[in-house]
Each structure stands twice: as C-alpha cells, then as structure tokens.
C-alpha cells in the first residue's frame, strides 16, 4: 500500500520485494544486492523491517509505521509460512502438532539481542520496545484487524500517516490493487522474495487475510495458558487489549 501511494498508483517500477526489501531478513538475497537496489532508487523509499524500535536509529525525516497482529493469529500465520518454506526441516517447532507447537510458542524464552526467534516473548518484546517505550514519539501505529476490516480507510490512513497527498482516485486504485485476491493473484510480485523459489508457492504466502484463526483449534486450557503468559509479559491491560484487537 505504501509503495503504491509513494508511486501514485498500482503500477510499480519494480517488483515489491526489490523495490521495498525486507532489510533484516535472511531470505537468500545478499545484503549487498539489497543495498544496491535501495541506493539506485530516486525519491522517497519504503523499507520493510521486523526490527523493534530500539534496533535502528531515529533518523530525522523518516516516518516509522508499525503494524501488529493478535499474537495467536501470528502463531497460526507462522505455521502456514513455515509449511510453505523449502528450507525448513520437520524438526521446526512450527511443524509440530498444534498442542506441542502452541505450548512452545507461548513458553519459549527469547534473548533481547536476538529477534530472529518467533515466539510470544519475542513478539511482546518488540511491541514493548517499539510502542510502549515511547522511543518513537511520532510512531504511526496500525493493527491488522483494523486494516482488513476496512481496506479503503486503511489506505487513507496510511497516506495521512506518511504525509502523502493522494486524491480519491489514487486511494480507490490502491485499495483495489491491494485487496487480498488481487495480491494473491500477483503473488510473485508482492510476496517477500517472490519469484525466487524461496517459497514452495508464492500464492500460498497469502493464506486467508482473516483474524481469530485460533477458534476451534485451541483448547480452553491452551487459551488460558496463553492469557496468563501474556499478562506476565505485558502487565498493562490497555496495552494487552490493543495488541490483541487494535482499535476495533
């Protein structure tokens, strides 16, 4: 959405993974190539990172937009992505049966200096260091559930957050082009490292665009275990509520 808003429409000058690389992910693309692709761009750029706000400098003139999602939706999304990767063995915890996998996701510990682990503690540390800490006073904050609820409103809000003057026709064009079906249909252009063979299926990177994926898949005991651990990691009830549900 941001890349299209920056370029004024749905037609981008390059595939999204090249135009807006995920700079801190080891996805098989040499760092030198990523740097060269960014350096070659003229004008405003959009860069993706999963680093928390204490993992990069605060640059003047750079707008930081953060998006979060319910931690249990993240878990089920990670399972889908792991199953779709070619380079992950069957011993990965995201390939274990759900009861064993969810317990590891909830209870595993993370090192604050290593954000490569995918578990509840690493997600909440990211949230605390980025949002709750106040390190970025002008942080623009979005929640996935709000975004999928109203795509057009999301595009308008992103344009405003980034200071982009987009008229109604551009907003409509970007909204249509970034709808779930449109993105999935052009998955090689939009998925991270799409078209490189990293994924078994680029199209399966876009799974369902739904929320509350845990219904019918987790027991009451597992949900209670999750809630207890989340309270330990994020003591503030309002901060917990927003991480789970956003503004909706």
Number of domains: 1
Fraction of helical residues: 40-55%
Under the CATH scheme, which architecture would be assigned? 3-Layer(aba) Sandwich
The percent range for strand residues is under 5%
CATH topology: Rossmann fold
CATH top level class name = Alpha Beta
Oligomerization state: single chain
* Average predicted local confidence, pLDDT: 91
Q: For the largest beta sheet, what order do the strands appear in spatially?
A: 1-2
Draw up the topology in text.
Elements: H1 2-7, H2 16-19, H3 31-39, E1 65-68, H4 71-84, H5 98-107, H6 120-132, E2 140-143, H7 144-149, H8 151-162, H9 168-177, H10 180-185, H11 187-190, H12 220-233, H13 237-245
Parallel strand pairs: 1-2
Question: TL;DR of this structure?
Answer:
The chain has 248 residues and is mainly alpha-helical. 47% of the residues lie in helices and 3% in strands. α5 runs parallel beside α12 and α8 packs across α9.
Overall description:
By secondary structure, the protein is mainly alpha-helical. It has a single domain, classed as P-loop containing nucleotide triphosphate hydrolases (Rossmann fold). Helix content is about 45%, strand content about 5%. The chain has 13 helices and two strands. It has helices spanning about 1-5, 15-20, 30-40, 70-85, 100-105, 120-130, 145-150, 150-160, 170-175, 180-185, 185-190, 220-235, 235-245, and strands at about 65-70, 140-145. Strands 1-2 form a two-stranded parallel ribbon. Helix 5 packs parallel to helix 12 and helix 8 packs across helix 9. The longest helix is centred in the first third of the chain and has 14 residues, at about 70-85. The radius of gyration is 18 Å and the shape is globular. The two termini are about 20 Å apart. The model has no long low-confidence stretch (mean pLDDT about 90).
């Amino acid at each position: 959405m941001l890349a299209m808003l920056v370029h004024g429409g749905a037609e981008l000058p390059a595939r999204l993974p090249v135009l807006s690389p995920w700079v801190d992910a080891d996805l098989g693309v040499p760092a030198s190539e990523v740097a060269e692709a960014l350096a070659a761009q003229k004008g405003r750029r959009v860069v993706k990172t999963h680093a928390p706000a204490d993992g990069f400098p605060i640059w003047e003139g750079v707008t930081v937009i953060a998006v979060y999602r319910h931690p249990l939706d993240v878990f089920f999304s990670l399972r889908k992505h792991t199953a779709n990767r070619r380079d992950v063995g069957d011993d990965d915890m995201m390939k274990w049966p759900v009861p064993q996998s969810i317990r590891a996701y909830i209870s595993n510990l993370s090192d604050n200096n290593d954000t490569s682990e995918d578990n509840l503690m690493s997600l909440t540390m990211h949230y605390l260091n980025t949002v709750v800490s106040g390190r970025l006073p002008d942080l623009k904050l979005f929640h996935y559930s709000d975004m999928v609820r109203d795509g057009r409103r999301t595009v308008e809000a992103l344009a405003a957050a980034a200071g982009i003057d987009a008229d109604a026709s551009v907003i409509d064009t970007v909204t249509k082009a970034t709808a779930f079906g449109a993105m999935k249909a052009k998955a090689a252009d939009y998925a991270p490292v799409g078209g490189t063979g990293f994924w078994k299926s680029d199209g399966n990177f876009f799974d369902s665009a739904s929320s509350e994926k845990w219904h019918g898949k987790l027991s009451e005991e597992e949900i209670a275990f999750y809630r207890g651990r989340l309270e330990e990691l994020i003591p503030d009830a309002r901060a917990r509520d927003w991480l789970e549900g956003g503004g909706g």
